[in-house]
Amino acid sequence: MSFREKSAWICFIGIWVIFAPYFVHVGALVRSDSLDLPSIAWLLSGAIVLQAIVTALAHIVIAVKHRNEKPDERDRAIELRSYRSAYIAVALLAMFIVAVPATWGYLQSPLVIGQLLLLCLIFGEMAKYLIQAIGYRVGL
Amino acid sequence: MKGAASIHNSIRRLRFEAGEMTQQQLADMAGITRQTVIAIEAYKYAPSLELAFKIAKAFGKPLEEVFEYRG
Fold first, then answer.
1. B47 touches chain A (CB under 8 A)
2. A74 and B39: CB-CB below 8 Å?
3. pTM of the predicted model, to two decimals?
4. What's the rounded Cα separation, in Å, for the pair A68 and A72?
5. The domain containing residue A48 runs over which residues?
6. Tally of domains within chain A
7. A73 vs B32: CB contact, 8 Å cut-off?
8. Do A74 and B45 make contact, defined as CB atoms within 8 angstroms?
9. Model confidence over B17-52: pLDDT tens digits?
10. Chain A to chain B, count of Cβ pairs less than 8 Å apart?
11. Confidence band, pLDDT 50/70/90 cuts, at residue A15
């Protein structure tokens, strides 16, 4: 397994491990009607810092084995394809999130809409890394 | 995937004929990773024209002796 394939799996798992509990907690806050800006700001910054630390540490570990491994044209092709697919997923989800409340005449608070859009971005990132990791296995 | 499958290559045979050249040696000569050599040999990746020329040059062979289009 190349450095970039391992890196894609690390990023995918890292996002899942950190942001799944984050959104479960945000969901609980929404249901209990206690979602406010300070609590979201603390939660989000904590999740981002934790994810950065986890992925950085994991990358340091795998970099020891893969020193001097530069990306080649296949790495770039796989990355481009994963970006394209993830962009489509994010665009469709974001349109859905904006369109559904408008269609049903049901307006959520800006904080909830913001969290849903963040969920789209996170989903897009996860899709990107998953497609990238699968691309290395299946081929182009 | 279909594109990679329609481009046949003789890399494995040529490596054997070149004194059992390893995938890593070929990768270093062509400026790619060993995983890319593996993917090309397994028809999971069709290299660009530039990379195909680099691989052929590494074997000292013309391009058509290394790669062949079977569309």
1. yes
2. yes
3. 0.80
4. 12
5. 3-138
6. 1
7. yes
8. yes
9. 988 899 999 999 999 999 999 999 998 889 999 999
10. 44
11. very high
